[in-house]
Design goal:
Elements lengths: L12 E2 L4 E5 L3 H9 L1 H5 L10 H8 L10 E10 L2 E11 H7 L3 E9 L3 H17 L4 E4 L1 E2 L5 E2 L1 E4 L15 H8 L3 E12 L5 H14 L3 E4 L6 H15 L11 H11 L9 E5 L2 E10 L2 H4 L8 H11 L4 E9 L8 H16 L3 E8 L3 H9 L3 E12 L2
Parallel strand pairs: 5-6, 14-15
Antiparallel strand pairs: 1-2, 2-3, 3-4, 4-5, 6-16, 7-8, 9-16, 10-15, 10-16, 11-12, 12-13, 13-14
Helix pairs in contact: 7-12, 8-9
Amino acid sequence: MYSVKSGNNWRLYRNMQNFQVIEVNTPSLFMQFLKFPWQIYKSDPLWVPPLLSDREFLLSEKKNPFWKHAEKKLFLLKRDGKYVGRIAGIVDNNFVEFHNEKTGFFGFFECIDDTVVAGKLLALAEEWVKSKGMTKVIGPVSPSSNDEIGFLLEGWDSSARLMMMYNPKYYLDLVEKCGYTKAKDLYAWMMQVKDGPQEKLAKFAERVQKREPGIEVRDVDLTDFDAEVERVVQIYNNAWEKNWGFVPWTREEFESTAKQLKPLFVPEPTAIALVNGEPVGILLVAPDYNEVFKRMNGRLGPIGLAKFLWYSRKIKGLRLLIMGVVKKYRNRGIEGLMYYHSLIGAKKKGYIDCEFSWVLEDNTLTNRAAEFMGGKLYKKYRVFEKVVG
């Protein structure tokens, strides 16, 4: 068997079966870590290659403010001289403090269809997380619940939407054979914009506005970007506080993410709600740029940029990333006003469909709202957990 060294002196080591476990600690190994998924998905037409520059940013301790309160260890695994898998062990100290539980994550998991290989990868993440004092591992979380989370459980007949997970079916079997059990399922709903209940929402909106004249619902104003980011942070950290897996975003994290996504946003399908000028609700929708990334093969060079600019104009799908109202103003009709505003904007811009994701399986109100909007439950994702100490 192989052994895992404690402390910070992680190096390359072998076991008796021609395995090499490699800590990713050089630029060339980091690039190999980023490119490994191409080996797994090379024959899968539904896979959307991520932009390498985006993945580099996500994992960069210098660029991504998430790593100011989190730490990670990246591993590659070789067998007989060939790369067969990768994984990250992750500890988010803000998650540990907020939930008051010693839980770490495994993330960025990619693996050939081999239980032995999967077991070795997961053991690496588990042992590293344990060395940091954690007693439980959940995953995949890459690298936080505000990023990509969960293995695809149902819905392999279409590509993933922007910032959603995609994986081979066999990943589920691999992690279960390695002792992992269900922690939580996440839902994705697909709505056809033309089928949205516009007339019902219009009548509802009229009643709410008469009852609550202080409510204003408008597009997100990209010309007032910094102030809008501040409003959204206030709403987000209040509205999602009690959600499973939630961790408050720091102002720096949210601002960094918003700056990355700003060029991708189309204001019309988004909605921000205010009551007498106080920000109370947000419905954040983005075009499904995975339709574009699928054509770029991970590269944003001159050719990739040309493809991006050309195909971005042809996007017909949306993803609803965030929808919530602060606790004080729930059950007053604000959610319906935002859905109505967003539906009108989506129709105006000519979008065909919208994915609502992800929604917790036990979030009854949001799942009912997605169904009311004409959504069909078409994908499920599963987050796994394992006690390790």
